[in-house]
Design goal:
The protein is 78% helix and 0% strand. It has helices at residues 5-34, 38-47, 53-78. The two termini are 21 Å apart.
Length: 85
């Protein structure tokens, strides 16, 4: 069995896209849960006088998914099969 660079590129792209889909789905879940964007949620959370530990936990997780999504988007562009031709 022969595996060439293009096959590896396709496999990497599929892996990135699957991970990106998962991260974006988690982002949508938080947007639905709080009925707002991450930026608006962040502002509201930071200006709230009451400590809400669950909201802060969600904020940290939400922000992490945002960073993962951005990182994977860049990797999928760099590893696009059209770049390997």
């Amino acid at each position: 069995m022969k595996i060439d660079k293009q096959d590896i590129g396709h496999l990497l792209l599929l892996d990135y896209l699957a991970s990106l889909h998962s991260a974006r789905e988690n982002l949508r879940l938080f947007e639905r849960k709080y009925q707002t964007s991450l930026e608006e949620f962040s502002t509201a959370l930071k200006t709230n006088d009451q400590e809400d530990f669950e909201a802060w936990d969600d904020y940290m997780e939400w922000r992490a998914y945002q960073r993962v999504s951005e990182d994977l988007s860049q990797k999928s562009i760099r590893n696009s099969p059209s770049k390997h031709r």
